[in-house]
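Appendix B.2, paired examples.
Example (i):
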Amino acid sequence: MSSTANGKNGTWRNWGGNVSARPAREVTPASVDELAAEVRRAAEDGLKVKAVGAGHSFTSIAATDGVLIRPQLLTGIRSIDRENMTVTVEAGTPLKRLNVALAREGLSLTNMGDIMEQTVSGATSTGTHGTGRDSGSIAAQIKGLELVTADGSVLTCSEQENPEVFAAARIGLGALGLVTAITFAVEPVFLLTAREEPMPFDRVLSDFEELWAENEHFEFYWFPHTGSTNTKRNNRSAGPEKPVPQLKSWIEDEFLSNGVFQVANWVGRAVPATIPAIAQISSKALSARTYTDIPYKVFTSPRRVRFVEMEYAVPRAAVVETLRELKTMVDRSGLRVSFPVEVRTAPADDITLSTASGRDSAYIAVHMFRGTPYQRYFTSAERIFTAHEGRPHWGKIHTRDAEYFSRVYPRFGEFTALRDRLDPDRLFQNDYLRRVLGA
């Protein structure tokens, strides 16, 4: 699932297939020292530098025509501190490898997103998150960071050490330096019971506060062109473990969620008029189920159907109103939307440019099957999200710029001032950062 960087002509493409770049050179450093040397060499050659993980961002946040750094050799657990319950990992470690390695050690992250193909540095730098009443994004679980800055030096930060860098660099967009290692808070592995069940859209909205308050992790998917949703509640459990049986898991997670869904999307792309009927069937295909397992087996699921995505964080208090407006827009627009809309939450955090910075947030994600025109749908959705002071996910499609961000992020100036200090010559600049952070 990783992005291919080769092709005959040295073109790099992201997972969604909507971004490509042709770097002047590509390097795969095997150590922090090697990475720092590459940064210094790029500066001498007058080339910009970007690191790219699994290419799971839908924006051009990692694209460069300069030096593309691939961190796949900087991988694995460096150390486990059981006294302070932290684990330090190399930046290129894929989340799925981290989750498996932690489980083997009897440990787990507190919360995670639903995809685990990304590298830890790529996921945290763009603000990747799951859903949680009390627990936030993956970046909100960071206790320490190591990064190589523009002058080629290695800087470490935490709440105690370089705290102003720590406040910003946990979700640094690749603008402050290249992350080489991350220290996460972990806890003894625990069990989660997942309860998935269909629920009418209107009922989810009327009961939203209650569903949010009563569950540690609540999320739902609404199928456009229907009044149906599929809800998921994850809560800690004393056990016993009761995983989804293998055959049932294959039927529901692979066959229905990936196989049949892929075919349905092919049909919908070829004949858009069929989409509302397919949506009715899709919304009824997944029946209620309950299972208990360790966290990463509950939080994450395989995503093999390729798509493009826009996601905005709105104040949690505005989520019901925003969703009503979104449904009205889809119903009136004549749009044909074959992918469900995903809704999750996160508590306020203290990270400078986190989508949940300083406010309890709800996330609304709209998707389109790869290869179908998405502009009209995303533009109409974005108009609704921005009317509620929405903050777009840094790794997903949006059209916002620095001027907009300076209004919706109270600490935006704090981030740009730190960037001026750490990267005055804009070694880590690219077109995307120029747009979202300003020149």
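Example (ii):
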Amino acid sequence: MGEKVVSDGFDLSARHRYRRKLKECLEAFGVLLDEGRFERPRNLMGLEIELNLADADGMPRMMNAEVLRRIGSKDFQTELGQFNLEVNIVPHRLAGRVFDQLAEELRTGLGYADRQAMEEGAGIVMIGILPTLTDEDLVSSNLTDVDRYTLLNDQIMASRGEEVVLDIEGVERLTRTSASIAPEAACTSVQLHLQVTPERFADVWNASQAVSAVQVAMGANSPFLFGRELWRESRIPLFLQATDTRPAELSAQGVRPRTWFGERWIGSVYDLFEENLRYFPSLLPICDDEDPHRVLGDGGIPALPELVLHNGTVYRWNRPVYAVTGGVPHLRVENRVLPAGPTVADVLANTALYYGLVRSLADEPRPVWSRLPFAAASANFDAACRHGIEAELTWPRAGRTGGLATVPAARLVQEELLPMAAAGLEAWGVEKGDRERCLGIIEERCRRRVNGASWQAAAYHRAVDSGLDREKALAAVTRRYCELARTGEPVHTWPPGA
């Protein structure tokens, strides 16, 4: 008899081979760490932004292939849904007027893409979740026709063995089921990359985990899904539930979800790749011909394709990245907690806050993760996702007395974290005017208690109070959001109302 074929189409021998290759890759990765063969730091940062396509009425347009043909740039790529695009910015050195340079590049590139999209009857929208999306939009027929998306959908659904269940309770409650992972396409985010050495990785990753709640509290921009007002950053629970490979009984037993915050501070990047192997079965058990031990024995650098592929299907909010460029391996921390938008100014303010805080916290002689229990960091993240800029966060008290205090996120940022972020950006070598301009936006958000999510929610309630029904109110909010976003002015300056 032939090898047994499991329900997702991969036979058991393929899974066994893949598991063996994963172990070999992890061993080879350990050798690279021990031998110190990684690239030295160049203070490089990278930026990716996921985008939506919407028409003049604020409704999603399923036409990324047509828009990409018009744009004609490799900087723009497909994403999961046909109403999604992604723009990738070439790595920049964290120094000088880096944020000013990024602003110019982004405004030029996104402006060009927006004009090309308009030729197809669409426009570019930077937002965490497009408020006008409906059940009919997020179906498998609207997934981008790319093999990896189809395979990923098939594998997740086969692993679950049942429909995706969405159940999110916030200001209102949303319950839905889906026959595919298409709801994940509603989540459009910003990914921030920072290249680090192996010796520095654990400090930077731990710092990234600690500040994730602060990032979300300041930058939340996803309060609506399927016409319901949910969390201020509804993208987080939506992504978790839409990619969940666990059937209900495994979830109830405490099996870890593939999208997760984590459960402990780490001592090495090796810890994360080891957890990937230990806790998560393979979604895409595809083996490469590379023999990593032979490559090492010949003095080369293995690409470790199985380790990279498997890591790409574990959706940590701060993810380790291994890559080889020009024959030299390097490591990056990929920070994935932020939603897209509302404007380039807002995105870069969020970016400056992250890189500044991570540098300061990673440099501290008595690091925050030695004083903040991991469970508290996880609870902070949940609170920030639910309540946004109105969240209260637990943080170590300053000074020698120690202990923890629970304080409003806006006050924590204004009084303690903004000075730390400024010091961190100065340590990177970012010019004073550049860092003050970006962090000044964060300060004003705190002072006015306004970010993308709070603006959307307030505009929605004004529209409903004026007599519009739910659907028309959300459409009006989306149109006004797009209109104001095109001015380029940061969201805290926007006039209220739709």
